[in-house]
Hints:
- Chain A has 125 residues and is mostly helical.
- Chain A has helices spanning 2-20, 25-46, 71-102.
- Chain A is elongated, with a radius of gyration of 22 Å.
- The relative contact order of chain A is 0.13.
- The model of chain A has no long low-confidence stretch (mean pLDDT 85).
- Among the domains of chain B are: 567-595 and 683-713, no CATH class; 605-680, no CATH class; 718-785, no CATH class.
- Helix content of chain B is 74%, strand content 2%.
- Chain B contains 32 helices and two strands.
- Chain B is elongated, with a radius of gyration of 38 Å.
- With 785 residues, chain B is mainly α.
- Chains A and B meet through helix 1, helix 2 and helix 3 of A and helix 7, helix 23, helix 24, helix 25 and helix 26 of B.
- Chain B: InterPro entries: CPA3_Na-H_Antiporter_A (IPR050616), MrpA_C/MbhD (IPR025383), MrpA_C/MbhE (IPR046806), ND/Mrp_TM (IPR001750), Proton_antipo_N (IPR001516).
- Chain B: Keywords: Antiport, Cell membrane, Ion transport, Membrane, Transmembrane, Transmembrane helix, Transport.
Amino acid sequence: MEILMALLVGVFFSVAVYLFLSRHIIRMLLGAAVLGNAVNLLIFTSGRLTPEAPPIIATGPAGTAEIMANPLPQALILTAIVISFSFFAFLLVLTYRAYQELETDDTDEMRFAEPRGQTLPPLEY
Amino acid sequence: MNADSSWVTLLVMLSPFIAAFFAPALTRLLKHNAAWALALVPALIFVHFSSFAPRIADGGVVTGGFQWVPSFNVNFSWYVDGLSLTFALLISGIGALIVLYSGGYLKNNENLGRFFSFILMFMGSMLGLVLSDSFLMFFVYWELTSITSFLLIGFDHTRAASRRAAIQALIVTGGGGLLLLAGLLLIWNVTGLTEMSLLLRSGDLLRESPFYLAIFVLVLGGAFTKSAQFPLHFWLPNAMEAPTPVSAYLHSATMVKAGVYLLMRLNPVLGDTAPWETVLPIFGGATLIVGTLLAIRQTDLKLMLAYTTVASLGLLVLLTGFGTEMAIVGGVLYLIAHSMFKGALFMVAGSIDHSAGTRDINRLGGLMRIMPITFGAAIVSAVSMAGIWPMFGFLAKEELYLGLFATQSWSLLMTAVAFVGNGLMFAVGFAVALKPFLGKLKADSDHPHESHILIWLGPAVLAALSFLTALFSSLTHHFLSSPMATAVAGDTVSVYISLVPHFGAPLLLSIATIIFGIIVYLVLGSARALMARILDAIGWGPDRGFDQFVNGIVRLSFMVTGWHQSGRMENYMKATFILVAATILLPMVLNGELPAWPAVSTQVQFYELAIMAIAAIGLLAVLQAKNRLTAIVSLGIQGFAVALIFMLYGAPDLSFTQFMVETLSVVILALAMTRLRLLPTDHRPMRETIVDATIAIICGLAFVLMLLRVVQVPFDPTLSEFFKQYSLSIAHGANIVNVILVDFRGTDTWGEIAVVLIAGLAIHALIRIRFGSRRGEIAANEPTE
């Protein structure tokens, strides 16, 4: 099972990286969303896959399952999901505002801070 | 030395810095009269160190200090012998006069308080430099003098010439300081010593070391930059951009002599070798000749003096390196004489400028009757500079000819160099001291006048000292010259020379020098024109070379920055991801940590495969989407597939959160994207697609391999078991994931909430706060070419 998950994680990463390498910020944003999932799955699989029971201690008469899922990666991922979501939302709004101001989402056209054809700094003292 | 007097000396060493702190406030209160109060500080320092003189004259030394970094054997310690004492007295004595002079010279300058502050800080640094025992302390003070010199040269920072001179001096002397640091570290490495006093007792340790030559070159790098030896002399004349008190104090009497001090200090351990006795006289001699020739070319009083200072420093280096005891005595006497006459002459040049409104020698004349005191000081100092009886300069000149002259060819060559240099300096000295005062009155200023007492006091006192020290030469020698020469030579030296002339070669040489000097003085105008023609013919000089060097560095860094900071996002991203792949793959390959070929499990359920396939299809659809909505929906598909995977493998909490977050993401993405008029697809040229896809696939592969490797090592369940065991018993929660989040790692979650909150606030701010149109600013930011 792990090998399939590993391959899937590989696909997630490849797609995320490919999207990131675009010149268009909106594609990079999609990449950011995919990258979050890629990392979460990576952590999840590293903690081993156990298809049996969720990590909940039974207090009733049924008793606790012998093998339960690893709770630690789940706790980490839960945090990560929320953080990457707020990050994603922030980036999205940033892109939106940048588009409003600069009328482009092409990173090569966004040249407010670094205008094309930089000239030498002044040589006098 | 007992603890109490240690504290007193420490306080004395720090007092200039303390005074510097209070100087601006005091100046606001007392205006230029604050000079009287502030001059008390160097005066008291002078008195304090004078009290050491009898002990040091008897062959003793004064040491003291405190531990600084005991683990590195670094102390804050001082070592006062004849050499340090003479320097300390010159620094504090002339310093007191300079502070007074500054008060008069910059009387109406609104930044006078700052000026006092800088010059007192410099005084403290210079004092620390000559008193330091520990190498580290010496180096720190050395660089402090460079920095305070930078501040003082650039005092008039509104003029570009000042700024250039300040930067130039800082780069040259600061760079030399770094060489010196390397040299000191090497000395420490070779000898294991960190203190001058111990080093001086180390005998031939350094001379016999295989690193001698490296140490020698590095120390020379420090000394030659600081003491403006040819071809690094150019910063010193440029430093004349500073107000005249600075030129008189730093760039004539004290700081530029730090390099000479260093050479004299290390002469007992580094000297007496072939490189020392060859390199020093050659550079010193070249500096002497070049300095005097360039001095003849100048018409500005300060620049004439500046170049003769360069020449004098060359002479001092020559004498220090020549190797005979007499030459060292000559150097010692010349150093003392030079500080007095050159300091006075600089101050005279300043007061002429102040009174007549110009420093151009061709536009000055006839000031003798108007400025009698200044004239007197000038003429006495020039006589001393020319080495004429009965001033202290006479003693120095006799002694140095005595030390240099012999019948070997090397000695004859050096004698000839000194002769020519002295003769030319004679001419320039008298040109400065006579031309502005004699002849018809032709000043620019409407009211040339005798200066304020603050201004004439300094040169008058120094001129008087030039005479008195010579008259009472036995006292001078007993307290200053002999102990200093002893320290420089490394064994006991007694100086006897007095105003009673001895007939012999030195006296004849002196007389010949005077005759030569008078001839040059008479033909100075045509000599100047000749030098100007020669220099114009050469065209290039180290000063222009400095500009070319600095411009070259700027261009180089511009090129390098332009290369690795291309301003193109995709290049940065490519570099980042290539590096990510490399950091994962390279260690695995190099250390043989690649995962074993995994056994394919046959127990894969169909629904598991199906969900993974859905995720993969969703991802590929994101890449291929032809319109926005498809892309958004596809993004949703892979997100929900991930949620299902979480669900399948026992993570209902994750699954639930993922569903919610993915839904929200899709909604806000749809909201935002429909408002942007963007190209629906991602057009990349074929070549770029291939490159990007390759990088992406290699990155993906790297993570696949890493993950496979991770799951192939045995699982360590310690932490997970801990949480399982204590979740209920300690934290009273059955859902372990929740307990970890809100209890075991509660602070973490708290931080996470803060992040979400801040992101929310930032989003709110971005949407709600609108600035006026930025079009104008963007237009203004376009390159204007």
